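Give me the fold.
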Amino acid sequence: MTSPQLASVHRLAFVAALLILAPSVSRAAKASVPPEAERRAIGHDVQAEIAAGRLNGVAVALVSHGRIVWEQGFGSADTSGRKVTAHTPFSIASTSKPFTTTALMTLVAAGKIDLDHPVNAYLGEHKIVDARGPVKAVTPRLLATHLSGLPSLFVMYSEHGTARQPSVDELLRDYGHINAPPGEHYEYSNLGMAVLADVVARRAGMDYGRYMQQAVLEPLGLHDSFFDTDVARREAMAVRYTSDGRPMPFYLTATPGSGEVVASVHDLARFAMFHLKDHLPDQRPILTDAQIDLLHQPYAHPAPGFGYGMGWQVWHDPAGHRVLYHGGGQTGVAVEFVLLPWADAACIVASNRQADLDFLRGVRDRLLRSVVPGWTSVPPTPVPPLQKLPADYAGTWRGTLSAQGRHVPATLTIDADGKGRLALRDEPAQPIADFGLVDGWIAGGSSGDLDTPDVRRTGLTQLDFTLKRRGQRIEGEIDAWKRTSDGMTILPFWTSLTRGK
């Protein structure tokens, strides 16, 4: 999960200024191997960060015009001192999403999935629902582009813990209520990508990890890569470390299809070359160039110049060049994965610790500049400013927050001056911080105990709003969430409130 993977987590970013976009990057001539002096300088700087205790293991790979021009590992893969190499498998978190959509497209190519068919027809017992029941408008294309209306969700399950990873059927039963009409609203949804992976597995007629291996990893020659279900290979991967440097037990997430591919930077470089259409002789053409282009086409538009294709973040620089990227970030994972199709170049930086992120992005950009002169960086997706609620939002809005079959009574009070308070059940109302409108949606943060089984297990009390006024109703999502050095948890609650008379 990366930012915007944390798009629904407390909106402190709303007060941030919009960043100036990077200047235009000219098309580079065919590049040579990065100069030895620059490689030594980058390696020296990475080793210095590791020696200072800010990083543990790092690997880098650089692609230019159909070949890997540099790849190297630094530091340790685990507490035994095993050295990181370019072939060390790292957990890649949300960088898995382009793998999931690549697998999806192989089944589209085979005629087994229609991108615009109701996805509920492909699912099992539990369906994606709205207030009236199962919906027809959610399609695989909308799931792949975060336009389905499904909410944010992220939960970790340690191999030493008592809680078990739920099935997608169980997730849909507990959290499968859309928070907006399909196609209306971009919300980065790990749940949506997990549902998409479940569709892939069902239509392929086999376990998702097995299909990923057979349809994507093996044909593309990604021999260091595997899915989390390949238990026999977990010992080879780099151990994940907390942000403060403690080794972590192996963990799964609630949404494996959204982030549980394990891959080396060497394999990510080969995957990048496939998507750059370099046509390596030892890779099978599992998709046509036109099908690859379809994955890269932006459908959602979170901000001017920024889009989201099917599993790919897309940025158009001021000159109109398309940049494809998808980072991965969660506890113990920091991956930078950037493709510059017009320059036929790509860069990968992987770390087994989510720390020192500015440094890692700087390494990424230094590497890309070595083969694409003039490259600067991918700017963060700008966030619209927080605006005061209009006066006609004032009043008392009552209803429920719902998840896991529980319906928690709630009262949202909005004063004439735009301040808000939220009360759960008959408990005292809590103030709402950073309360207002962002791009037409009600945002803010509060606190309260929603007292569902998952909330009790994870101890969540912080609440975050993504709500929309629709006439005399306010509907959408309130997330219970928590972040510590050991991990992040986000649990969504479908929220429906009606204005009191």
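The two ends are 42 Å apart (CA to CA).
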